[in-house]
Amino acid sequence: MEETYVMVKPDGVQRGLVGEIISRIERRGFKIVALRMNFIDEDTAKEHYAEHKEKPFFDSLIAYVTSGPSVSMIVQGKNAISIMRTINGATNPVDASPGTIRGDFAIETGRNIVHASDSQEAARREISIHFGEKESVDYRKID
Ligand code: CMP
C-alpha cells in the first residue's frame, strides 16, 4: 500500500480550504494516517525543497511555505502518489484542469495551495522530514 506526503500550504489554510481538501482526499477513498497543523520552520522548508535550491524562485518559495501554518498529512492507499498528484492538478494552475484542487481554487504557481510527493523516493523522504516514526496511526478503515 502506497503512502504519500500531502501539505495544505499556508494560502490553503488562510483561505479556509483545509476541510475541502481533506474531504476530496477522503471521498476518493484514501486513508489519512497522520495529520498535523504547524508552522513549518525555515530549515525544514529548505530541506523539503532542497531540489529547488538553485532555482530563482527558491527564496520566495521558502518565504511562502513558512508564512503561516500548514497542514501536513500522510495519505495512504493504492496508487496514492500518482492519484494525489492528479487530485492536486498541474503545478502551474494555468495548466490545471477544472475539478482538480488547483484548477478549482488557484491562479498562480507561487500560491498553488497544495503539495504532494512526486515519486516513491520523494514520498519516503518527505514523510521522514515532516513526521516521526510513531506519528502515523495504524487502523482499519471499513469501506
Ligand atoms: P510544489 O508542488 O510544492 O513543488 C515545488 C513548488 O515550487 C511548487 O509546488 C510551487 O509552489 C513552487 N514553484 C515551482 N515553480 C515555480 C515558479 N516558476 N515560480 C514560483 N514558484 C514555483
TrEMBL record:
Its main location: cytoplasm. Major role in the synthesis of nucleoside triphosphates other than ATP. The ATP gamma phosphate is transferred to the NDP beta phosphate via a ping-pong mechanism, using a phosphorylated active-site intermediate. It is found in: Cytoplasm. GO terms for cellular component: cytoplasm. It comes from Methanosalsum zhilinae (strain DSM 4017 / NBRC 107636 / OCM 62 / WeN5) (Methanohalophilus zhilinae). It is an enzyme of class 2 (transferase). ATP binds at K9, F57, R85, T91, R102, N112. The active site is at H115 (pros-phosphohistidine intermediate). It catalyses: a ribonucleoside 5'-diphosphate + ATP = a ribonucleoside 5'-triphosphate + ADP; a 2'-deoxyribonucleoside 5'-diphosphate + ATP = a 2'-deoxyribonucleoside 5'-triphosphate + ADP. It holds the Pfam family NDK. It comes from the Archaea. Its cofactor is Mg(2+). SUPFAM superfamilies: Nucleoside diphosphate kinase, NDK. This is Nucleoside diphosphate kinase. The lineage of its organism: Archaea, Methanobacteriati, Methanobacteriota, Stenosarchaea group, Methanomicrobia. Its EC number is 2.7.4.6. GO terms for biological process: CTP biosynthetic process; GTP biosynthetic process; UTP biosynthetic process. Belongs to the NDK family. Keywords: ATP-binding, Cytoplasm, Kinase, Magnesium, Metal-binding, Nucleotide metabolism, Nucleotide-binding, Phosphoprotein, Transferase. Residues 1-138 form the Nucleoside diphosphate kinase-like domain. GO terms for molecular function: ATP binding; metal ion binding; nucleoside diphosphate kinase activity. The gene is ndk.
